[in-house]
Amino acid sequence: MAIIRVEHLSKGYPGGRGVVDVGFEVDEGEIFGILGPNGAGKTTTVECIGGLRARDGGVVEVAGHDPADESPDLREVLGIQLQESLLPDKIRVGEALSLYASFYRNPFDIAELTERLGLGPQRDVAFSRLSGGQKQRLSVALALVGRPRVAILDELTTGLDPQARREVWGLLEDLRTTGVTLLLVSHFMEEAQRLCDRVAVIDSGRVVALGTPAELADRVGGAQVMTFVPSAPVDPGTIRALTAVSDTETRGEVVHVTGDAEMVADVLAALRAQGVSAGHLRVEQPTLDDAFVSLVTHGKDSHS
Ligand SMILES: Nc1ncnc2c1ncn2[C@@H]1O[C@H](COP(=O)(O)OP(=O)(O)OP(=O)(O)O)[C@@H](O)[C@H]1O
């Protein structure tokens, strides 16, 4: 069932940009990604969902509440991590978390949350003395401390090193099992591909694609590439003749075959028919990265 519903959301700024027409639904328990190039309207969208920005038009509902109504019940349901956390310089990590936890009825245990986010040693450190990555982790912790049903995380791992990023991903994967709904704004395709059940790609203030990462990758029709070392010489003509295959080439002892989603099964069947096995088999799938570049480039063409 949808816990977030957005229909025809619009928000203009004096300069004219913003969000033109955004719509999607997020089911309870989903991790939903919002992707798009700089200035696409991602932050504007999540700020309207979080009730931080007034929309011009359209419908937004979070757990049955309109964020524009500023209902106290919605505050209990929603946790928000913003791109920049604005805390007093002198507040310590533990104090900030205790303060935020006090706003909620059933908050996380602070010691456990700081450990999970790698902030245990910083509990008594003042905000101004934290590194950029530590500030980022604290802002994620502040969004999650109230055990929200819906958490909005904007650029949650920007500024984190690869190790810290993986720790935050681990925390989100754990959270998934608690049934929390996560709305992530991300620039990292790897992050979206790993974490998100579905994503919306926004470009120039509109949704240009919506689906699972795998569906979007498939939709761009990116060719798959398989490579293998045959156990005996194969006739390239028999491989090339398969309808799923668009190209084949032998480099040294390695055969490279390009084709569509059916290619791997068809090539392996053709080899088996010749009594040949495929050693060192590798298959490269099109990625969300490929889909993103293709969708956003096409979006630009159609809006210009
Ligand atoms: N307060 C504002 N006043 C005027 N224009 C704004 C304001 N906030 C955003 N914009 C413009 O609205 C558009 C969408 O901005 P938004 O921050 O939502 O995009 P974004 O996709 O989150 O970008 P980024 O990835 O760079 O954070 C941009 O063209 C931006 O310049």
Features:
304 residues; alpha/beta; Alpha-Beta Plaits; six-stranded mixed β-sheet; four-stranded antiparallel β-sheet; 34% helix; elongated; binds adenosine-5'-triphosphate; nucleotide-binding; ABC transporter ATP-binding protein; transport
From the 3D structure, determine the CATH topology of the largest domain. Answer: Rossmann fold
User: How far is the first residue's CA from the last residue's CA?
Assistant: 37 Å
- CATH class assignment of the largest domain: Alpha Beta
Order of helices and strands: EEEHEHEHHHEHEHEEHEHEEHEH
Rounded to an integer in angstroms, the radius of gyration calculated over CA atoms is 24 Å
- Counting structural domains, the number is 2
- Given the structure, what is the number of helices? 11
Percent range for helical residues?
A: 25-40%
Domain ABC transporter: 4-229
GO cellular component, one term: plasma membrane
Membrane topology: Peripheral membrane protein
Pfam family, one: ABC_tran
